[in-house]
Amino acid sequence: MATHFVIDGLKAEIEGKEILKGINLEIKGGEIHAIMGPNGTGKSTLASALMGHPKYEVTEGSATINGEDLLEMSVDERARAGLFLAMQYPSEIPGVTNSDFLRSAINARREEGSEISLIKFIRQMEKKMKELEMNPEFAHRYLNEGFSGGEKKRNEILQMAMIEPKIVVLDEIDSGLDIDALKIVSNGVNAMRSEDRGFLIITHYQRLLNYITPDFVHVMMQGRIVKSGGPELAQRLENEGYDWVKEELGIVDETVGQA
Ligand SMILES: Nc1ncnc2c1ncn2[C@@H]1O[C@H](COP(=O)(O)OP(=O)(O)O)[C@@H](O)[C@H]1O
Ligand SMILES: [Mg+2]
């Protein structure tokens, strides 16, 4: 079945403060959507709420992949349903090697008895690491421990490439990347484009979108999507910043603020 991801009227709060104030978004397989917006407007909260981070309480709305409600699932079940999140700040897990982590992540998404064979896993990992121009030693390093910002981001893309999710959410995957790494990471994403995979790319800056061409661009302010368009919208934000959007919509403070 072709992938169909629908977020409908999603509201979420943290410690009693409403951060997401009704998000509507529909992503079909094959599509790349970008969410852009100034700092503090709720972009990472959206990613965390979708993934089921316990700090964020969803108070209204739904998020479904092919009709299955993610919000009623545990974090593991969401992953098995095909959702993948590359976090803005990937966590370090000392004591767990990157390779062990990846293999468990893949197997956790498979039925019991159909786990990936070790040899196939290693071959795939070596291939993907080569494509991402990662030093092979990163397979045996503890997950993200001592990785530079850029190495962590590359490693998130390695996870995405190995896991082959249906819906990919990338939160600020471009932060901390130099121009060469940005190209490598973008190539990694572009190589994963497929008819049965949808992408939600959260980014503060337009430059990533020079390498990954989105089909749709959305602007987020005050915990809502306030404007949507095509790639030209990202270009205009790059040239003119966000002030014109605020003026057009009569927004004074774009952050979620103390509502
Ligand atoms: N764990 C948290 N505790 C308290 N406030 C939070 C937490 N996470 C996010 N917020 C608040 O929610 C708002 C949106 O944050 P975030 O989603 O990270 O924005 P963005 O990713 O767009 O920069 C901010 O005002 C932020 O301070
Ligand atoms: Mg953020």
Lay out the secondary structure.
Layout: E1 4-14, E2 17-28, E3 32-36, H1 43-51, E4 56-65, E5 68-69, H2 75-80, E6 83-86, E7 93-97, H3 98-108, H4 118-131, E8 142-143, H5 149-163, E9 167-171, H6 179-191, E10 198-203, E11 216-221, E12 224-229, H7 231-240, H8 243-249
Parallel strand pairs: 3-10, 3-11, 6-9, 9-10
Antiparallel strand pairs: 1-2, 1-4, 4-5, 7-8, 11-12
Bound molecules: adenosine-5'-diphosphate and magnesium ion (MG).
Can you walk me through this structure?
The mean pLDDT is 94. The chain is globular. The protein has one domain: P-loop containing nucleotide triphosphate hydrolases (Rossmann fold), CATH 3.40.50.300. The strands form three sheets. It has a six-stranded mixed beta sheet, with helices on both faces. The protein has a four-stranded antiparallel beta sheet with strand order 2-1-4-5. The protein is α/β, with parallel strands linked by helices. Helix 5 runs parallel beside helix 6. The longest helix is centred in the middle third of the chain and has 15 residues. A hairpin with a 2-residue loop joins strand 4 and strand 5. It has eight helices and twelve strands. 33% of the residues lie in helices and 29% in strands. Bound molecules: adenosine-5'-diphosphate and magnesium ion (MG). The site of magnesium ion has 4 residues, from helix 1.
List keywords for this structure.
259 residues; alpha/beta; Rossmann fold; 6-stranded mixed β-sheet; 4-stranded antiparallel β-sheet; 8 helices; 12 strands; globular; binds adenosine-5'-diphosphate; binds magnesium ion
